[in-house]
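[step 3/7] fold_predict: job queued, chain A
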Amino acid sequence: QVQLVESGGGLVQAGDSLRLSCTASGRTFGAFNMAWFRQSPGKERQFVAAIGASSGNAMYQDTVRGRFFISIDNAKNTMYLQMNTLRIEDTAVYYCAARYGGFVVRTESSYPTWGQGTQVTVSS
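[step 4/7] structure written:
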């Protein structure tokens, strides 16, 4: 069983950058597919980005494509989300998620393992 812990959230101004980290314990990422989701108050949890730990294949939500970059350091068992040109609408709790095997997907229900979340707040 893998356990996930997110970190790196904080308060920034629009246009700033921030890097989130997700560190795994219990298992190495190996053949896992990893993803970032986010949720704002009153809104559904939203897919942000996903990556295959072994393949390196990645996909992004349309509103973050070109601004956010997902990556994995397998030696450190850590996944990152580099967030650039942050917008007010990026404000949310960001969650790290994992599933074993299969393909890189965007569907929330496909990820059985979740971290506790880290708050990102973007001000004007």
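[step 5/7] annotate
The radius of gyration is 13 Å.
The first strand starts at residue 3 and ends at 7.
exit 0
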